[in-house]
Amino acid sequence: MAVAHHAVEFHVSSPTTPCDASQRRTVNAATAAIGRIPNGTAAIRAARRGEPEGWDWLFNRYNRLVLRYVMSRLGDADLAEDVSQDVFVAAVGAVRKLRDDSETGIEGWLLGIARHKVADRQRGLMRDRARSGVIVEDAHDAAEIAVDRISAGELRAAIEQLPATQREVIIRRFVLDQPLEQVAATTNRRLGAVKSMQHRALRSLERVFERSCDD
Amino acid sequence: MTERDRLFDALADLRRESEITPSSHFQQSARAAMHAVAATRRRRAFNAVAAMRRRIAIVPSIGAAAAVAASVLIIGWSAPAGSPLYAIRTAHEELQLLAPGIDRCAAELGDAESRLADASGGRDRSASLAAASLLLAAARADLPANHSSPDWPRWTRDEHQLAAFQNHDDGGKRGSVGGPGGTTPSPSDEHGASPSPGSDDGQSAPSGHGASGDDQNESASPSATSFPDSDDGSSGSGPSGGEASGGRDAPSAGRGSDGTSGGSGS
Questions:
Q1: Which of B180, B161, B160 is nearest to B240 (CA)?
Q2: In this complex, do A63 and B14 lie within 8 Å of one another by their Cβ atoms?
Q3: B22 and A23 in contact by Cβ < 8 A?
Q4: Is B248 helix (H, G, I), strand (E, B) or coil?
Q5: pLDDT (tens digit, 0 to 9) for every residue of chain B, 266 residues total?
Q6: Which helix (H) or strand (E) holds B249?
């Protein structure tokens, strides 16, 4: 399987077809907001002025991206929506600190907030598990390995074991489908460094699953 | 199937699993939460700006009030007796007297001299003279027992000057009361008319009872006899008709209180 087909150009998906009246209203308001604001820079300026249209634009443009990122890290849809909401609320408070208000800058900024929020939530979950005495199931389930297929949960657990920089590259490249150039731009790294990190990350993951097969 | 293929299959699975459609509840609640926080921040910012504006608006008022207060203080600092702001002058002089280690007598004499200067400058003359009289009486109470103190001649000189002014004023009144034909005796005339015997040691001490504290007599001193302004107290032109007491003449004649020893004939 080639890697290239994962690294397709990033496109913001349009809102899904509304299934009820409230969702239709939401989408209509969002569309109107997007119509008035031409780009991310204008949206950030409007948001800084406290105009709701700016925030609507940013939410409509980036909520799927953020949600997908959080979902890939946590693996629970409800939890992912909850954390994504926290991300956008935190963005309201942090918008004045945003330096680069280009599309790439905004994306990197929101994913950075998402990374911190996911880490916070994971710490909270671990605390809760420790308190309630729940034992986390071993990610390397023997039965799944036997069918010669790595489950998404296993992979997620393995990705979480990677260093933070390698984890970010893997998620952006293979879950968010961002090209190398975009990953380099949003993480403020050189292209060569991103390639190298991706290679090391994939190698690490391979080693994890090789080990589990050996076991 | 290589390990790399298995890994890419798993990554594709993870990608598909992560591509969830945002629920309408999520969209609405996230949007509402964002707007609520933004509105709170906007309100807070607005309040901060309003508070800043209020503070800025207060500044000119405070400045104007401070300027008025400073003006009143500056004008009142040397306001002549009788002026509405005279209280400021007396207040700061009182405060000076409260300072530890101050020479009260010298300070009171200084204050009295400033009143005399006001009187000579025509700044509310009668009130200034009255204030000078009170201050000299207070200074008299604080004069040291040692008559060689420089405060003694100073006090005497000031008393003479006060008496001269009062005589001048009294003469003016008499002259005006006496009608057009009346004459207004000048201090020099009076001085000439009542030569003072002077003291033995050349120091004229008012009342000469510094140690005895004959304040009643003192308060009335010096006599109505005028003393020239130039009298520095060492010329022997002590208060007229004073009894020699310990070599110091006393202006006991007072301001014509008994009229027996003044000798001024006024």
A1: B160
A2: no
A3: no
A4: strand
A5: 677 888 898 999 999 999 999 999 999 999 999 999 988 888 888 888 888 888 888 888 899 999 999 999 999 888 888 888 999 999 989 898 888 888 889 999 999 999 999 988 888 888 999 999 999 999 999 888 888 888 899 999 999 999 998 888 877 655 544 434 333 334 344 343 333 333 444 444 444 343 343 444 444 444 433 344 444 444 433 343 333 333 334 333 333 334 333 333 33
A6: strand B248-249
- How big is the A-B interface in CB pairs under 8 Å? 135
Please name which of B151, B156, B169 lies closest in space to residue B196, comparing C-alpha atoms: B156
Q: Do A152 and B10 touch (CB under 8 A)?
A: yes
- Chain B residues with CB inside 8 Å of A71's CB? 17-20
How many whole angstroms separate alpha carbon B38 and alpha carbon A48?
Answer: 9
pTM for the predicted model, two decimal places: 0.52
Checking ipTM against 0.85, whether it exceeds it is no
Partner-chain contact B19 A80, CB within 8 Å:
no
Cα Dmax for chain B? 144
Chain B contact residues (CB < 8 Å to A):
1, 3-15, 17-31, 33-35, 37-39, 41-42, 45
Best CA proximity match to A51, nearest among B28, B40, B48, B39 = B39
Are the C-beta atoms of B240 and B262 separated by less than 8 Å? yes
Q: Please check whether residue A4 touches B, CB under 8 A.
A: no
**Tokens encoding B156:** 């005497």
